[in-house]
Specification:
two-stranded antiparallel sheet, alpha+beta, DNA-binding, homodimer
Chain lengths: 243, 243
DNA sequence: GCAAAAGTGTTAGTCATACACCCATGT
DNA sequence: ACATGGGTGTATGACTAACACTTTTGC
C-alpha cells in the first residue's frame, strides 16, 4: 500500500501526532507463521520438524513456517504454509503465541505467530515439499538445535498444549473418529506425562456426557475387544473439561 | 530495511523458491499492540478505554494501542504505548492473542498483538496523553462501540483473564502489596462472576502457602479490622492454583 | 448495645484414589 | 487353559459446600 492510497485523515495523523519516523516506515515489517504439530505414536509424543532447504538457517531443523502474504489472513497463512511444506491439509490448528524480538530474524523485522495442532501419527502422512528438504517426527526428548527462536516457540507450544488438554477437550483432535477409552487414556498420559488409574479415568469420561458409545467393537486384537466411542455432537474444541 | 542490506543467501531464496511476489513485498506490514487493562473498583470490573484523537476512527472509543516501531520488541512496545497514552508505567502485562484479518485496519496491513493487565483502580491514576483525547474506565456492562476489531480483542482478553485467574495466581496484580482475604475474595467474585463462601474461600487460600500474614491490620474501618497479608516470596505470576 | 464484618468450627455429602475382582477374546 | 487387556464395584479418605457461630471494631 502506498502513501497515495491512504485516507486523507491518516496523513494528518502522521503529520500531527509526532511519530518519530515517517508513517511508511511502520509498514516495513513482515509476519510469519510457525506450526507446532504434535503427533502421538506408540508411547511417545513427537513434533513435526522440517529440514530447511532455504536461507536463512539452510540445512537446520525448524518448525514448518514461512512468511505470510500481505493479503492473507493469519489463520489461512498457517494452513497454507503447513500444506505447502508438509502436505498436511485441514488440520485443526489453534493460535498459541506471538514472538517479536527485534533480532529474531536475520533478514529484517519478522514477527511470527505460532499455531499448534495435535494429530494421530497413524492417520497422517506428511511429505516434505516446496523448500522443505526433509521432514521428520522428532520425539520431544530428542530435539536437535533449531533455527531462529524455534526452540522457544516449541516449548511455549508444549505449555499451551498441556494447559489446554487438562482444561478443555482439545485432545480429541489427536484421536480418530472412533476410539476406545484406552486410546484417550493413553493420549492423556503421554501428553501430561502422568499415569491415570484405569477405572477412575473411565468413570470420569463416561460420566462427562461427551462420549457416545457405538455398537462397534475393536477388531483384530489378541485380547478382548474394547468398545468404540465417538465424540458427542455437542462437543467442540472449546468444551470445558477438567481431568 | 532495503534489499541491499539483506544477506546474499536470502536473495537466493527469493529467486529460487518461487514466492509469487518479490521478497520486499513481504516487508510491507505494520504491527500494533493493543492493551486490555482491566481494573477493579467497588463491585465492578472495568476496562480502560481512550477516546481516539487521531485517524482512523477519530473520536471513537478504543483500547489503548498504537503502531509498533520496527526496532522495538513487542512487549516494550506495549509498555511504551500504554505509558504514552495513559501514563501507566511498569504494569505487569501478559500477551493475550494476535489478530490479523486482512481488512482490520483501513490504512494497510496491520497485525495487532494484544496484551492484558489487571490493576486496582484505587492504586492508579491514568491520564489521557499524546493523541488520546479522553480516557475512562468503562464498566464491562456498558461498553460503547469500539474502533477497529477492538470489541473482539476485548472479549478475547476477558476470556484469557478468566481462564488465567482460575488456574493461576495472576489475580494478584490487581491487589496492592498488602491486602486482606476479603480483598482477594472480592476480586475473584467480580472477575469470575461467582459467589464464594467466606469460610471455605479463606481456608483454601490460607492452606495454599502463597500468603504470608503480616503483623499489620486494616485501619480506619468502621468494623473489626482485618488482618493484612502479602504474597509469599516464592509466588510469581506463573504459580499454579486452582480455585 | 448495636451494626458490620472478621474469623472459626462442625457436619453432611460428594468426589478422588486405590485396589481387587470379573469378563471376553485369540492362541 | 491361559495370557492379555477390557471393564466394574467398593471402601477409604480427602476435599467441598453449607451454615451456624464467636469475635472485634466504630459509633
Amino acid at each position: 500500500m502506498t502513501q497515495e492510497n491512504k485516507p486523507e485523515d491518516f496523513r494528518d495523523l502522521a503529520d500531527s501526532y509526532g511519530y518519530s519516523i515517517p508513517l511508511d516506515d511502520f509498514f516495513s515489517c513482515a509476519l510469519s507463521v510457525d506450526c507446532v504439530i504434535f503427533g502421538y505414536e506408540d508411547n511417545d509424543l513427537k513434533v513435526l520438524l522440517i529440514k530447511r532447504g532455504a536461507q536463512p538457517f539452510k540445512k537446520s531443523w525448524a518448525l514448518p513456517g514461512d512468511l505470510m502474504y500481505p493479503d492473507e489472513n493469519l489463520k489461512n497463512a498457517a494452513q497454507r504454509v503447513l500444506k505447502d511444506l508438509t502436505g498436511l491439509d485441514n488440520l485443526f490448528m489453534e493460535q498459541a503465541s506471538s514472538f517479536g524480538s527485534v533480532d529474531r530474524h536475520p533478514v529484517g523485522r519478522v514477527v511470527t505467530v505460532s499455531y499448534y495442532a495435535l494429530v494421530n501419527i497413524r492417520d497422517y502422512n506428511p511429505v516434505a515439499a516446496s523448500w522443505a528438504k526433509k521432514l521428520k517426527w522428532h520425539s520431544l526428548q530428542e530435539i536437535p538445535e533449531l533455527a531462529f527462536d524455534h526452540r522457544e516457540i516449541l516449548d511455549s507450544g508444549m505449555t499451551t498444549l498441556r494447559r489446554n488438554l487438562s482444561t478443555r477437550l482439545i485432545g480429541f483432535n489427536l484421536l480418530p473418529d472412533k476410539f476406545t477409552l484406552k486410546d484417550i487414556q493413553h493420549l492423556y498420559e503421554i501428553v501430561l506425562d502422568k499415569k491415570f488409574d484405569k477405572a477412575n479415568f473411565r468413570k470420569k469420561f463416561l460420566s462427562s456426557e461427551f462420549l457416545e458409545p457405538l455398537e462397534e467393537m475393536e477388531s483384530n486384537v489378541p485380547y478382548r475387544p474394547a468398545k468404540l466411542y465417538k465424540l458427542a455432537d455437542k462437543v467442540d474444541n472449546r468444551s470445558s473439561f477438567e481431568i
